[in-house]
Amino acid sequence: MSITAILLAKVFREPESIAALNGSDWSELIGQAGACGLLARLGEFVRSAGLWSAVPEGPRRHMISAAVVVDRQHDQVRRELCEILRVLSSLQTPVVVLKGGGYLAAELPAASGRLLSDIDIMVPKTAISRAETLLSAAGWISTENDEYNQRYYREWMHEVPPLRHIRRGTTIDLHHTILPPTARPDLDAQHLFERVEAVPGMAGLFVLSEEDRILHAAAHLFYDGELERGLRDLSDIRLLMDAATAAGPRFQMDLLQRAQKLGLSLELNYALHYLDIFFGPGKWRAHPMNFLIRWSFDRALLPLHPSCGDALSPLAKHYVYVRSHRLRMPFRLLIPHLIRKAWMRHQADVAARKVNE
Amino acid sequence: MSHEPTFGIRVGPLGFRIASTLPSLRDTVTRLYADYPRLDDRDFADFQVCVSPCRGARFAPEVVFSESGRRPFQPMDRQQAFPLLEWGMNWCVATTMNCWLILHAAVLARGESAVILPGRPGAGKSTLAAVLMMRGWRLLSDEHAVIDLATGRLVGVPRPVSLKNASIERIARLFPGAVFGPTVHNTHKGTIAHLKPTEASVLGAQQSSYARWIVQPTFSPDGTEAELFEIGQGETLIRLAENAFNYSLHGARGFDRLADLVATVRSFELPYSSVVKAAEQIETLVE
Questions:
Q1: How far apart are CA B4 and CA B25, in angstroms?
Q2: Chain B closest CA to A349's CA: distance in Å?
Q3: How far is CA A198 from CA A37, A106, A192, A195, A302, in A?
Q4: How far, in Å, CA of B14 to CA of B17, rounded?
Q5: Which of A188, A343, B76, B164 is least surrounded, with the fewest CB atoms within 10 Å of its CB?
Q6: At what angle do helices A57-88 and A128-137 cross, to 10 degrees?
Q7: Nearest-CA neighbor of A306 among A17, A108, A28?
Q8: Which H or E run contains B50?
Q9: Dist. CA A247–CA A18, nearest whole Å
Q10: DSSP class of residue A322?
């Protein structure tokens, strides 16, 4: 049986199959969903498929528990977005909210059951400095006190380190483009700004266009080094695609053309390939993929749960991690960087042990 | 899933599968959880927990707690395997089960009426809870007051009572029949031992009960033996909210449930120096 044939994916493909699950199967399902952040979405999915009555009491509690956390967080994020808009209003440039924050702001199906780790905001490169100043005056300050890490972000990655609010603890990731600039200097963010859509009811706030948000999600998945939430991100793409396909027959053509224009055809292909594998065949046909990528992502996209993966999974994940760094950094910077990161992790472990004693 | 043999138990409405390759830990679990209903292989389990040896940076052998493969804590000395398992199981309940409102408190019941003992650290709630339990109260939990948001019903999740330092000896002398897990020294909470819950507590875990009293104990060795002082609803609500694990997650619903709770209970402070007298004071509340 293929390594990607996990129970969670089967349930998303054939929701009625939950009626045949025994208690132990439910343990596995809840465990897999919880591990990749799909528990709340699974609950909503089962409900909207009219199958909630087929869910026993035990599993129900876990899905409800996840939903409680998501609902609370969505309230907080909505308030936070209003505050960010207010603070950045003097910028006089579009403020684009990306990924989960964007799905929530625009009330898209992809917001369903989705927890956000931070709020991703994009402004034009010319406005980045001013944006950071305005945000820091309002309480969002850089989380990086370490000089090395500041340099990593600003000089090498051309990015702003995450900003954390001193009182509320919410985090903003401030961007001027959608992929690490060192990985994709060819990607012209201007194209993205040209097509952004206003969020109804929140003047000044925008989200990426329908095609662009799909391409962003696809690209991010295959540039990211840590794919613990990989299946969740893939599920986002599926929901975005389903909504867009329903809206118009031209969509397929538009998406492929847009991918070509932005230079993201390869990443879109990866996404289509995995959407097929995990969530069932769509109307799309992906082209064959590079063996090494396929071998490693097959494992790296699986939830971190004892029921998923094989003995090679840690190696595959490690490869994905190193690969994502290689994509962002030239080798002469990468090797010393990885060594330093490993050393700092070791130091942190040792320090944590001392606290325990 | 896991290929190790597991010990599956029902704790109230929750199912735990416990795995370990450590023979002494397995022995302790078998003893302290002897009365619990067992899970069979096809049953749903909320948590798959494991305490296993791991390679540590230190010289002494270490163990690590995991739930479905996740490791929320740093490894600990192997001697602390059983306390680590218990803390881990507490962590599972408090961080996952947000379908309920969970307060940091001990809860015991007589029939359908329950007393909640909110837990300021060092106040002695676990010792008092142990005494009440050995005197015939049903233990719902020594750590988590689990409240159904819709009905206010208290959910029983009774597990071994964690006792510290001098309390261990005290309980052992007061109740010669008491069964304990291993006494473990040098934990971050001092010396610890776990008291096996009474059969009545375990088998009665699913029985319905509702809060009728809230009693906040404070141990002071030189003070009064035990005296109940009634306090007001507002004060009580604030204290409960401060002692909660997930109150802020529930927003208005959580507030409404706590407000309902304080309106239907009598609430007290109980400074004491004698734990037996303290238990007697609480028992005077039962008509």
A1: 14
A2: 8
A3: 28, 9, 13, 10, 35
A4: 10
A5: A343
A6: 110
A7: A28
A8: strand B47-54
A9: 30
A10: H
3-state secondary structure of A42: helix
Tokens of B53: 């040896």
Instruction: Name residue B246's beta-bridge partners.
Output: none
Length of chain A: 357
Cβ–Cβ under 8 Å, residues A67 and A40: yes
pLDDT in tens, A26-56: 999 999 999 999 999 999 999 999 999 999 9
Residue B1's pLDDT is what?
42
Q: What pLDDT score was predicted for residue B204?
A: 96
* Strand arrangement of the beta sheet that strand B184-187 belongs to: B161-164, B190-195, B184-187
This prediction has a pTM of 0.93
Interface test with B, best of A8, A30, A57, A68 (most B CBs within 10 A): A68
pLDDT above 80 for B173? yes
A34, A35, A58 member nearest B15 (Cβ): A58
Per the structure block, which two tokens stand in for A21?
């699950």
In which band, very low, low, confident or very high, does the pLDDT at A283 lie, cut at 50, 70 and 90? low
Report angle CA B212, B217, B222 to the nearest 5 degrees. Answer: 150
Q: Quick check: A38 and A236 in contact, CB under 8 A? A: no
Is residue B130 a contact partner of residue B167, using CB atoms and an 8 Å limit? yes
- Please state the length of chain B: 287
Q: Contact A22/B42, CB-based, under 8 Å?
A: yes
pLDDT tens digits, residue range A91-138?
A: 999 999 999 999 999 999 999 999 998 999 999 999 999 999 999 999
DSSP state for residue A227 in the 8-state scheme: -
The interface pTM score, or ipTM, of the predicted complex is 0.95
Q: How far apart are CA B151 and CA B59, in angstroms?
A: 52
Cα atoms found within 13 Å of the Cα of residue B230, Cβ hemisphere only:
7
| The pLDDT of residue B138 is above 60 | yes
Alpha-carbon span A49 to A42, nearest angstrom: 10
Compute the half-sphere exposure of residue A113: CA atoms within 13 Å on the CB side of its CA.
26
Tokens 């039962």 locate to B286
Beta strand A140-142 pairing with A205-207: unpaired
Q: What are phi and psi of A342, to 5 degrees?
A: -65, -40
Where do runs of H (alpha helix) occur along A248-330?
Answer: 251-262, 265-279, 291-300, 313-328
Dihedral sign for Cα B221, B222, B223, B226, please: positive
CB-nearest to A69 from B46, B69, B249 is B249
**Residue A346 CB-density burial (10 A; 0-12 exposed, 13-18 middle, 19+ buried):** exposed
Q: What is the pLDDT of residue A357?
A: 52
Interface residue ranges in chain A relative to chain B, Cβ cutoff 8 Å: 22-24, 26-28, 31, 34-35, 56-62, 64-66, 68-69, 72, 75, 304-307, 349-350, 352-353, 356
Pairing between strand B266-272 and B210-219?
Answer: parallel
Task: Give the containing element (helix H, strand E) for B140.
Answer: strand B138-141
Return the closest-CA partner of residue B98 out of B284, B262, B253. B253
Q: How confident is the model at residue B274 (pLDDT cuts 50, 70, 90)?
A: very high
- Interatomic CA distance for residues A315 and A322, integer angstroms: 11
Both tokens of residue A136? 């820091």
